[in-house]
Amino acid sequence: MEYVEGPSLVTLIDDGVMAPLRVVQLARAVCEGLVYAHTAGIVHRDLKPENILVTPGPGGPVPRLVDFGLALSIDQSDARLTESGMTMGTPAFAAPEQLAGKPIDHRADLYALGMTMFEMLTGGLQPFEGQLMEVVSARTTRDAPRISQRAPKLGVPRAVEDIVARLTRRRPDDRFQSARAVIDAIDALRLVPEAEQPTEQIATRPARGGWLAIGLAACGLAVAGWFLLAPAPPSPAQVAVPVPVAAPRPVVVEIPAAPPARVAPRHRVAREPVAAPIEKPARPAESPRELRARIDGVDVSGALPPGDVRRAVERQRSALARCVPASPQTVVAQFTIGEARRARDVRARGAEAGTNACIVSAFGDVRTEAAPDIGDVKVTVRIAFVGST
Q1: Which of 96, 101, 193, 356 is the most buried (most CB within 10 A)?
Q2: Is residue 27 domain-shared with residue 128, that is, in the same domain?
Q3: Three-class SS string for the chain?
Q4: pLDDT the model gives residue 342
Q5: Which residue, 365, 375, 368, is CA-closest to 301?
Q6: Is there a single domain that holds both residue 302 and residue 210?
Q7: In whole angstroms, what is the distance from residue 254 CA to residue 250 CA?
Q8: What amino acid positions are annotated as catalytic residues?
Q9: pLDDT, position 325
Q10: Whether residue 15 is found in the same domain as residue 140
Q11: What is the dihedral sign for C-alpha 119, 147, 366, 139?
């Protein structure tokens, strides 16, 4: 197989909330790939961030669709489309009709695209929460909630939210009817990069969560098309697609700036005079700033490679650095990873309540690149807070 350089879309989502302009550019390119596949009579059936690789190109990033292992002919006379056990893709992204074992067509891929865009715009948040069967039941009985309902503080542009909402409709007839129609809707958007926004119109946000700095508006924009260098047309196994974006008319939407953080005043503390000289001052207790978090072990029980889980845990080092206790100690954290690839039921023991709560919050953001093949995975992590050397 061809070697494809570049991370999967999961890695980009793990880095945090993506700018709306970047999301629609990548989504448009994915749609070009789906147009190619659907025109060839192929439905992917397992479109998700893990199956979208983002490679560098002369005009910018190029998303490439991979892993057509579940792809089948759209021809409804193909009995494999309705055969029991054959229609299930990854439940977190599969269309409701796919989960219900009903006949599917290319609109199932469009639903998966909408779910993928939902995660890109929210930093990995999914429309439905709960156990696997609860999520499946909810998705087969009602439309997915809008981004503004699940993450109202992000302030995703309404026009972008509308596209995602239409893609994730429960009934196929209520969605966009083709990938080309999605491209047309994206081309009608008017978005500009955040860097081109006036400073006072952009709300600042912390590294994770908080206000999303939204770029809506501005001057004429022409984004160069993203094309593969290979002269031959792409195969259904890996589809690379161009990303032309129409030149927009400026529309400015002002976003109220977040209120400035209050800084607690500093007070001088008077010191009493020392009555008698001290022969030798005692060494002060080790300050929390002198401690660091060290991951001493990651135990994995279940159908996920330990290396994949450890990498997901290692990505939380910066968050663990904020959990340093007052004195050296070891904490044991435990959590479960299921079909959604996210840590749940996180627990921590071995430190004071504040440190344990901080660790629970840090590991609540753990996300693996793949879901377990079978069942849930139990993970135990040992964190030692030790002095810096």
Answers
A1: 96
A2: yes
A3: CCCCCCCEHHHHHHCCCCCHHHHHHHHHHHHHHHHHHHHCCEECCCCCHHHEEEECCCCCCEEEECCCCCCEECCCCCHHHCCCCCCCCCCCCCCHHHHCCCCCCCHHHHHHHHHHHHHHHHCCCCCCCCCHHHHHHHHHHCCCCCHHHHCHHHCCCHHHHHHHHHHCCCCHHHCCCCHHHHHHHHHCCCCCCHHHCCHHHCCCCCCCCCCCCCCCCCCCCCECCCCCCCCCCCECCEEECCCCECCCCCCCCCCCCCCCCCCCCCCCCCCCCCCCCCCCCCCCCCCHHHEEEEEEEEEEECCCCHHHHHHHHHCCHHHHHHHCCCCCEEEEEEEEECCCCEEEEEEEECCCHHHHHHHHHHHCCCECCCCCCCCCEEEEEEEEEEECC
A4: 86
A5: 375
A6: no
A7: 13
A8: 46
A9: 87
A10: yes
A11: negative
Q: pLDDT at position 185, please?
A: 94
Domain-located, residue 65 = yes
Say if 268 falls within a structural domain. no
CB 312 within 8 A of CB 367: yes
| Two structure tokens written together for 30 | 């994915």
Report pLDDT for 11.
Answer: 86
Q: Are 73 and 194 in a shared domain?
A: yes
Reported as a single tens digit per residue, the pLDDT across 326-359 is 888 899 999 999 888 889 899 998 888 888 888 9
**Rg of the Cα trace of the chain?**
25
The whole-number pLDDT of residue 243 equals 45
Residues 381 and 235 placed together within one structural domain of the fold: no
Are 142 and 40 found together in one domain?
yes
- Which of 222, 240, 258 is the C-terminal boundary of a domain? 240
How many domains does the structure of the chain reveal?
2
pTM comes to 0.53
Residue 258 lies in a domain: no
Structural domain of 60: 9-240
Q: Tell me which residues of the chain have a pLDDT lower than 50.
A: 76-87, 195-261, 263-276, 278, 280-289
CATH number of the domain encompassing residue 119: 1.10.510.10
Q: Is residue 378 part of a domain?
A: yes
91-125: burial string, b at 16+ Cβ within 10 Å, e else: bbbbbbbbbeeeebbbbbbbbbbbbbbbbbbbbbb
